[in-house]
UniProtKB/TrEMBL annotation, chains A, B, C:
Coiled-coil segments on the chain, per record: none
Record lineage: Bacteria, Bacillati, Bacillota, Bacilli, Bacillales
PANTHER family per UniProt: ACETYLTRANSFERASE, ACYL-[ACYL-CARRIER-PROTEIN]--UDP-N-ACETYLGLUCOSAMINE O-ACYLTRANSFERASE
Pfam families: Hexapep
UniProt keyword terms in alphabetical order: Acyltransferase, Repeat, Transferase
Molecular function, one GO term: acyltransferase activity
GO biological-process terms attached to the record: diaminopimelate biosynthetic process; lysine biosynthetic process
The protein's name: UDP-3-O-(3-hydroxymyristoyl) glucosamine N-acyltransferase
């Protein structure tokens, strides 16, 4: 079902049973897999490739238990040219993926996120709302990027990374702050970051480290709780 | 495809390519996204919202390697009013979601689970079979809730939590017991619980902690293995 | 949509809105759920069951940031008889699942993987490219099996396991090596393995352990970093 208000460019390949809702804009040379859903107002640039069974442009929801209500007035999802979206992904309204972004299968990205040029969001990764991700960042498979996080350019995050932004663990409606990861830092697989800490530029966090306080620029930390490694 | 034996209430919005199998009962004011599958006998209450590409009511499967064979005679999946189910979710027969439950995108819930009123099951979370979850519980994104687990009311579980229920790790067909998390406990992100331990009421488990034995009521533990923090 | 070049055996049950592309071969007594996508050239043996909303046989993709370009000339995906594939899964070309394999919902398996007879790949698990998995292996829910990994027969991997294969964390295009897990080893939930280490036959890795070097045959290790437990 393609809504008659949708605008579709040249040489677009559309799979079986694709749903394109009202006011969607699709550039040229786009490939759309089977059973894809593109929700209203979504904007897709030239040469974007969207794999099967993915839903683009959904709006957030909330229940009674959620302290912070979802925003109601989001701008459309915008996917810039040459980006690739995997199979069975879910990406929300209010988010912008810049040029050449790669999103792996079964990943989800919430509202009001920015993802810079040529960044990779791995398979099964989750990016929460209001997080800013720079250019040429690698976020590997299964990593969890909490809300209100800042990830600068050229950061590398290994698989199964975990972060949090709520130091009182669900006590209510107060400001949350995710970690800040500065330019070029490298974080090993299954590392854990606590809320609001800063990981310095070009620092290294070891695999499995539990980081409870700031890491200085170019420092290497490991362990639970993470401590600086002795320089050799 | 809507089977002719399905009963559908008033003001129900049904997306494109939805499959509703035999004997499904759907209340009024329900919204069903595109490409949703509602398998036979499923019961959906009023004001439920189901997002795109979700499958509700599947039956369990097993292969030769599985020590415990899946049950064959499950009651239908029942979703009570005002619940919200995300995109690309999978929820099994034999399970009940009570009122106002929120299930995030890409989450899955197996058979014979109970989820209490106003509880949140986060995006990408997995809940295994025969687990009981109370009211107003928060289970954040990517958490793994093993089988045979009991989670009481008002528990908070941060993202990327891990639990297990099999202390002999796959040796065969003997009783399994997941952890028991008592009322109001809070568990930090990427914490690990071993089988059959009890986390006391209103206790706190730090982010990244590996909990190998019981935690007392109101106690705070952290580290690997987790130990009580000194009181200040 | 079933392409006219597809070959389909006897007594095959095909759900609603299934897409079967060109040159697909499907055996007899196969069950295919709703909204399944079977991409070109895929080969499916007798008595295979594929649940809803799964995509089989996709090709890999890459963006500018990826040091190693995806292969272009992959053999078809082959699924041997009596295997079961869950809902919302993604499995790539170039991979072979042998007899009686069980793949859980929302799991993904990349190109050039081999999965031995009667092995279980849990729900939400991810298996990266070029990994070899033996027979009767259990990989539990949410585990991350990196690329270039070898997992021998009868290994048990608990839920939320994490591995990595890149000791320089994204520095470029050099050889990668995932861990090697020898026959009958057991690994607890949320354990972390560093690149290129060997886990000895019949050894045990405790839940939450961070394993930074080789583990000897029949040894038990735990902690961060993991150390041998004293024998009792």
């Amino acid at each position: 079902m393609i809504d008659q208000t949708a605008q579709i460019g040249d040489r677009v390949v559309i799979g079986e049973n694709v749903v394109i809702e009202e006011n969607v804009k699709i550039g040229s040379d786009v490939v759309i897999g089977h059973h894809v859903v593109i929700k209203k107002d979504t904007v897709i640039g030239d040469h974007v490739h969207i794999h099967d069974l993915t839903s683009l442009g959904r709006s957030p929801a909330g229940n009674k238990k959620m302290a912070r209500k979802p925003p109601v007035d989001l701008s459309p999802l915008i996917i810039h040219p040459h980006s690739i979206i995997g199979s069975n992904c879910v990406i929300y309204r209010g988010t912008i993926l810049y040029e050449g972004v790669l999103v792996g299968d079964l990943a989800s990205i919430r509202e009001n996120v920015r993802v810079g040029n040529d960044t990779i969001i791995g398979r099964n990764a989750v990016v929460e709302n209001k997080t800013q991700i720079g250019e040429r960042v690698t976020i590997q498979t299964g990593s969890y990027i909490t809300a209100d996080m800042i990830i600068e350019d050229d950061v590398f995050i290994g698989p199964c990374f975990s972060s949090s932004n709520d130091k009182y663990m669900g006590k209510g409606n107060y400001p949350h702050q995710g970690p800040i990861i500065k330019r070029g830092a490298k974080i090993g697989n299954n590392a854990t970051l606590l809320p609001a800490i800063t990981i310095g530029a070009e620092s290294i966090v070891g695999a499995g480290a539990v980081v409870t306080k700031d890491v200085a620029e170019k420092e290497t930390v490991a362990g639970n709780p993470a401590k600086p490694l002795k320089r050799t």
